[in-house]
Give the backbone structure.
Amino acid sequence: MDLCFLPAYELGRLLRERKISAVELTGAIFSRLDAVEDKVKAYLLVLREEALEQARVVDAALAAGEELPPLAGIPLAVKDNICIRGVETTCASRILKGFIPPYDATVIERLREQRVVFTGKTNMDEFAMGSSTENSGFYPSANPWDLARVPGGSSGGSAAAVAAGEAVLALGSDTGGSIRQPAAFCGVVGLKPTYGLVSRYGLVAFASSLDQIGPIARNVRDCALLLGALAGHDRRDSTSVPQEVPDYTGFLVPEIKGFRIGVPREYTGEGIAPEVRAVFERVVDVLTGLGAVVAETSLPHTRYALPAYYLIAPAEASSNLARYDGVRYGLRVPAEDVVTMYKKTRSRGFGAEVKRRVMLGTYALSAGYYEAYYLKALKVRTLIRRDFDAAFEKFDLLLSPTAPTPAFRIGEKVADPLAMYLSDICTLAVNLAGVPAISVPGGFAGHLPVGVQFIGPPFAEGRLLRAAYALEQETGFTAKRPAL
Amino acid sequence: MKNYEAVIGLEIHVELKTTSKIFCSSSAHFGAEPNANICPVCLGLPGVLPVLNRRVVEYGIRAALALNCEVARFSKFDRKNYYYPDLPKNYQISQYDLPLAQHGYLEIDTGNGRKRIGITRVHLEEDAGKLVHQGTVTTTPYSLVDYNRTGVPLLEIVSEPDIRSPEEARAYAEKLRSIIQFTGISDCKMEEGSLRVDANVSVRPAGSQEFGVKTEIKNVNSFRALQRALAYEIERQIAVMEEGGRIVQETRTWDEAKGVTLPLRSKEEAHDYRYFPEPDLPPLVLTREWVEEIYRSLPELPDARRERYINDYALPAYDAGVLTVTREIGDYFEACVRLYPYPKTVSNWVMGELARLLNATNTEITASPVRPGQLATLLKLIDDGIISGKIAKTVFEEMFHTGKDPEEVVQEQGLVQITDEAALKAVIQKVIAANPKVVADYKQGKDKALGFLVGQVMKETKGKANPQLVNRLLKESIANSDN
């Protein structure tokens, strides 16, 4: 039995029935990791000893007959922008090399209560800025379906680890598509929750008004289980919403008859690769076959989403990243005075994309430009939110491709930032609107997985999961594994 | 030389004395070991988030209402971006375009009566830490950073440019301190930095309605320094204009030792703070009920207390003003008046002997060794004729230095007033015999001569004689000697 590719809910059952042990499961994951990690490079840091120790504690509790939560003993990889107490957290940036947070992120605390086993910290685009993990300050990760291609980003390491069987579950963060696009590229399920559903405490901020932590899993049920463990109000995050968290697995019925699903024409037109469009059209057929009512609709301000996003996100980032100055932690390049030290430290510590966005954001907020850029972008954001509000008066869900292309080749877009930015064209607006969305495998373009995205109104995660589950049950695409 | 008018506005920062900081639960208390009161949140470590302290908002509202401001039902926080090692996030969470409160005022006393100074706005923000240099900032080989103060809640209070002289500026700042201090939200100690004043000043020809180019003065560490710095800066600006020069918009620093203001940075070097809404904090929405509840809980403020002292205690306006500078002085006064029902006498003692000794020993009135009850007892001893008013001052001083009760001091030092007529008559006879000329003057109608004779008797008795009694006995003795 290859434990590495079993669903978390199945592994949980085997653990509770004492058919397998948590140490055995964790060992299997590390064996798989030893076999493929050289090729995939999903991780920045592997927590071998710590994970086995956590697994032993779970086994002891099981042996003592304790009733454990559903995710107890399940190996989970953590994106390296989420703080684990005592574990180096770098955001894949050289400027944070050596930074060891003295606290757990709220999601880590919650997963500890679930007795989840943390396998390690995964690779990402530096400070979550990018769509391929090529902006990692250390090394790029590879797509398990085609090692010459990117796993997507910024949560590329997390998606690749789950796809390659180097973890059963993973945490990602999504600011403009950073969970959904790599999930699509790696043929796994990724969900961006409603802004405020999951606490951001302990998530190293990129763009505070857009960032959300979310689950990455190989199937929809696992995704629902993990979301349930992450969600819920947190006093330490003033933007988290006081709201009851339902049992998301309760939504998982393969039945979407009568669901009104809108397809925004802005997401299926120009710029969408033909092979992606072909998969998307088959998905529409499948859903229609299941009794859903699929119709075209419009989100008229979509074309302004990318420019608005690239003002708002960099503006917040320029401020959020100001603290990396060499004074307190991480990299310091010594110099004769403090200002020179700042400059040298930041010049050496940040990569090109981070510098680009810090400069973009600084400019957008500068006196004389604020109204024309940042303030205008905020107004556009309101219009985009209204587009979604209007659409959800007519539709239960929206459907689109997750990304305009399947995974692209490593190096293909590094010299062209705009081409790279367009990779998130279908996902950005969702963050601007603060609504939830899920990417689920919809088919294949050749050997490469293609994802589709369901978008829902605020706090309709249950509905998203149900639609994704129905599609999954009908197509079985989530059962496929890359031949590594 | 033409006639000029100064235009002054003050920006005052007040540290709120809440138990914990504005956005985390670290202690906000002053005086701890360096970096003892810190946590990941106030250190701005990666991934942490601010959570607004409700008590800070309450204190802010309390101050705003005491300053007659309109409290905003909806306000928000913004980030003020600048790099400095004492600012761990390299941005300060403040309030920019939608402050907590606006449109207030306070009233000061000037040579021409009361004057109302407008308050533009009151907003909440977090304090920065403190750098410790080895020597001066320019020559130090390295600097240490103490983040204890980082995240301590601050209230920034910005006045309208309604102030016209250094004296008014000082009166405004002192009045503001009184009001804030009465509300109990801050210690307002300039020496500990819990009250800081920056001044904006420009000069224009008298009668002009346009504003001149202003300079901002920083590093003013006392009310006296504020007045001096403004006086200097106004003279400097007038001199520049008289010489046909132009004032440069800049920030200047007050050099207390040299008594001058010096350029710190020009307008061109000024920061672009790149304010934008703080995405980690939702807007601050206040209910009318809460604001009204805070309004109802406001204590009596200096102006109201002053009026009450004038009306209820028949005190002169001057006395009432002095006794209401701080809440503690007034509390002391009132505690005393409750036990000794002659307010003006109490006022004289509090403003006189007590204030003199408190100042001389640099003691807060709350720590006065002479408690209000002891002062009241002392005053009763005078009224009862046990001691004279003159001796009372000696007794008071002894009480102040030893903390003893007045009766004890009087007993120990044998200061009981001599009221034994026989004993006094003997002294009086002696004085009359020794001063025949003065006695003769008195008899010829020079009333002042009697005062001299009383003084002689007091001298002979080392001040212990009852002056009224001496007066009467002297008159009787001289009258009798005619017969």
